Amino acid sequence: MKRSVWIGIGALLLAIGGWLGYRQIYPSSRTVWSLMPSGQLLVLASDRLQDTISAQALRNQIALQQLPIFDEARQRLNRFLYAATDSSTAIQFAKGKKIRYSLHSISRTTLDFIFYIPTTDVDQAFLNRLTNPDPRHYRILRHTFEGEKILDLVSRANEPVGSFILTDGFLVGSSSGILIENVAKRMHQSLRLPRAEPEFQVDADHWAGLSMRPEVLQSLFGNARSLVRLFLPEELNLQFRPSASQSHLIGYAADEIGDRQDVASLFSGQTPRRIQSSDLIPQTTATLYHIGISDAPRFGRSLSNLLNSASSDFLRDRFDQIEPATETLYRSLGSDILLCRMESPSGARQQVMVLNATNIKELSSAYQQAAYLAGAKTPAPLKTFLGHKTLLLDVPELPASLFSSLFTGFQRSWITQHGSSLIVANAEDAMQEYLLQIQRKAVWSTDERQVDLVKNTLRPANFTAFVRLNRVNSDRSQTLLTSTWPLAWQNLLDDPAKAEQSSGFANLENIAYQASYGNEKILSTLVLGRTTRRASKAVLNRLLLQKKVEFNAPLISAPVVTGNLSDGSAQFYAQNNAGQFVLVTPEGDKIVQDTTDGPIRSNTLAVDFLDNGNLQYLFMTDRTLYIADPRKRSVHLNTIRLPAGIDPTYLTRPRGSMQRNWVALVAHQDGQIYALDRQRKAFIRIMTAPRKGPLLLPFQVIATRAGMEVLAMQPDGTLNRWRENGTQLPHYPARVERSTEDEKEIRFAGPALLPLGQSAIQTITEEGQLLTLNANGLIASKTQLYRPVRNGDFRLFPDEAQTNWLLLRTTDTEVTILDQQGQRRFDVRALQSGRNNVRYYRLGAGIELISVKSGGFTALYDLNGRIIGDRPIPSDFPIALQFDERTNELYILSGAKQAVQLFSIRLR
């Protein structure tokens, strides 16, 4: 027996030796896969990536060259080829060739490409130029590695450009010499296990192929990437072609189901569906997850089995608690389960779950029952907002307990009904923002391009994950999502050193992954592109006058805008020096409505004061609060007399308040806070500072689990922090005092602010001492900022919505913007003394602007100090700004002399 075994082993070894000897004498024809080192993260194949496309074509369609991975591969190859020869010769050499690019890891922080260009006898002239470059600029160094000759292209200053190997059928190159040595090692490995090479079809209809590991794709979905991983196949081999609208490229794949049987079971018997509820997806949605179902009871049974066997102890235990309510809840579901994560300038996670229902009453009742079974306390009083009754269910992670970990992030559930859908928000602010967008119809179904994306570009699927990439700041190329990627990916794709126009992320707006699950295959679709229109360079950054409405008398305050400036639905309210309150319709008609007792002093606050499901607009003169109730071609003004001593310059919302009838807060000159009660139609004093003196505006309203808190600084350094019931928190009011007798008395010109998600309070003294206070109001750290020879006051400089802050130093004729650490960003000088106004705006989609009004003009700046617009904006009062992210258009409403003017600026 042993003898026969040894004979078998010997025969096998002889066969292997014979095969290896045969391959040494008659080597097999080279393939890309035989040259490629193992461990590749992804492989690209295309015959048009090096093609040139006109600027006009790129404004109307997406191209491979505009996608980040493809763009980076193209740039790496171009840098190599253009260094060796002129660009036209290099383009001609690459034209029509099916070039492959593989991406590899070099170190923990570095990734790089290898490119494989097929060559024939026709290319010999180019290869000769490559191996014999112009000696005035470049030279070739040669060395041997693993028996293979490697050529290194270097500049005359000995700076490496790239390394390459010439084989019988390929030019293999990379900017990394290490990777080329790995290719050489691969070429001379005698014993290699065969690897299946993906068969990419590249022709007029199929522009490119992409093979990638799922972890590469899952990293694109931010904090939910580990959850999205569950829905991905074990390998993705995508064929790309353009969509019918040419705004997106679509990659299709059919991959083995592998170990995704649990997910496939979840969708067993569920017909893939398109998204039906596009009228319930807000325009500011940054991340969207959609599960489409056609058989709700069957889906519910599968989901129950999945949650019963969940790997998380919390989910298993929670599901045991709420299981009695789940059968009714799942049975009541309609076709769509949506999770919308909305863009939030403050960085807070604002997310809303939308559950389409066949029986909305059953679904709502079952959801509430599940909350009480999970330990929710007695329900809080119902609040109403825009005609929707909202209910707080104080139980954590209820959506995840019912629909898997994909729906985490709900510490509490605010619920309401809208039509035949149950709406669940993770915060009151999120619910109100969502309902505002629904009421304004700022949703996907009203946007022509988003409708095309939903109805035509996105496919019917069981599962859809959608991400919209946005700029965080105009001075960085980092995006919301790439900040969560490994450093190597950030260095490859989102290098801050790159010019903005050269970054592939400047052209990619939407990423969507869709999957449908069968018994053996997962059908995948990867959608890449943009819905925002690109502008020609002729109109970029130009101030364009859209509308001008002239009056017979001069204006006495800034015009008030209601509605959306971008779609022409906005009404303007203007005041002239005759005391007339004039409505300007979208058609440009001027209709005198009423008279006011003076110019408007405050900001405008949009609230549902009348509790009728519509927005009214609150603003104050020196003596009166006005409630403007807009109609189609009129506006009705209600008035409430201001208590004596009220500061008429600032109105804010009572965020997080448990009082359903409080709609606005104002400050009193003696250090008090008043609430506007819509039921009593009166102001009620709710908070009082022990020290008499004004509060520095804007004071901060903080939403907590126990209700509303108010943080307010006084000029003498008294820091107040009230609960909603008017009592101060322990250790408050705190007095920020000098630490030694030698220091001057501390004075403040601006507010204190508790940043979202932090426990330390930030403020700055008039003299430029930047202070960090702990939770008890005691100084934890302080830094003295540089003060110029000329005196100037420092203050904290929050944006208009108090979602972020900068620092501001002002003199009578100069303004300096500083970052949060006190580092100078930019200066604006030669301003008119006593006629200046500075404001900070965060408009969404990463647009952050500073407006500086001086005299009769306003200039706009980004946070690097670059001027927005090609000329100043005529304005006698502070301007109003809106940004339309669908068109990248900035709208500016300005009042100057005897006219209201609407301008626009097209941003990149």
From TrEMBL:
Name listed for the protein in its UniProt record: DUF3352 domain-containing protein
Lineage, broadest ranks: Bacteria, Pseudomonadati, Bacteroidota, Cytophagia, Cytophagales
